[in-house]
Input
Amino acid sequence: MLAGRFRSTIVRIGLAASLCLAPAARPAEPGCGQTLVDGSTAPLTWFYIYPRQPVKPFYQWENNDGYCGEVSMMEAGLSNGQWISQYNARLICGTGLSQSGPDGACDAHYGQMNFNAQLLIENPGTGVTGPETYANAAQCLANSRLSAVTYDYTKQSSGIEGYQEYMSWVKQQVISGHQVTLAVMIKGGSDAQYDHEVTVMKIGTNHSPMDPSYYPDDVLYFDDHGAYALRGDEPTGYASIPPGAGSDSTGCTPFVYGYTFSSLAQTRDGANQGDAQAYSIVIPGERTIQTRTGGSGYDTVPIAGPHNYAFSVEGPEDPAKETLPVALGILGPTETDGTPNPLDPVAGYDYENPKIGRNLIGIGCTNEQPELMTNVTLQATVSGLTPGVSYNLYEYEFSSITGPGATAALAVPIDNFNANASLASAVTTFTSDGSIFTHTVTTASDKIVVFRCVPADGP
Output
């Protein structure tokens, strides 16, 4: 019954159809879009390949040089029935690094970012980092109870051939219905491998949508988590609320970008040229470069590279495939200090107000819990149901995360969900009268809420 639940969605669209995932309303600033950032638009294609669950943009915190990895994992969690804040998404990695480094690091290094505290995609012990502990995606995702794999860059070829292998892997993962996060360079960035982590929303192709081969005219669409927030035509600071939300008519946050596969391939120098597009992906190689991953967190260490990195989330950790698909959406408005947060025309209420840290521009230590959002109403949508069958929708709620390594993992079962019913904080039993069932719960942003749905007669 559940065998096909991880397949992608494929849509055939004629040349007169919409270009990308259109929001319900345009941004507040007229004409806001990627043309304000890099002067280009993605070409139309005949087919679009989507992950099993649609990806909705989420606005990231910027301090400590960004929470892009955390937000990418959050988006995968929302697509699979889980709410976890950016703050807790960092703690769940179990590194003991808190938000910005070991105890006392903020006092000693205020104004510096600790790159080891960020959720990064590189795997430890694979020759691409230094010897120090850092928050790596594989551990973070496992602790979040998400079933995921990382791209095996250790077997990747160098040069354009290696880049094409990487993009083919990304395409195959989306064809399989998985949600993919990949590493990109930002125009004007400095890291030899990547500056940012983004979430794939769809892939456009003029070829068979089941063919994972690399084609230069394939188009990659991704959510950049609001990294380019604009006032007029100029980038602006990272406000708590996305520019363009609510009554803000002077700014906007584009969120969605689309580029052909061939145009994304660049060297670091090429990505920073004056006529370069806003985002690029590095061409892999085997020269000596410097990375801040796995060093002190502030200094660099030499490695052979650069490499391409990505992770792909299949669904909740569920080896026996007992669960039904569950997606979470935030119904709004949420509230901060009793004041409703406004609707963003692209992300909706998918942002955390206020910001973390003490400034807007991404510097400084960030290991202080920010003020909470309240009235966070989550709607769980269960799909793939069979009419007339009874199901149990289990809810697991947690107030905090503690412990190193795997001890920071969520206490959510991965099998025998009915036999482990005592681990749930609540259960909703229902008999389906259709293929979809919805359920809402209202919480605060610092809580972790996880849903799993299984047939009531299951193990």
Q: What stands out?
A: Residues 326-455 form one domain. The chain has two domains: 9-15+22-316, 326-455. Residues 322 and 454 are 6 Å apart (CA to CA).
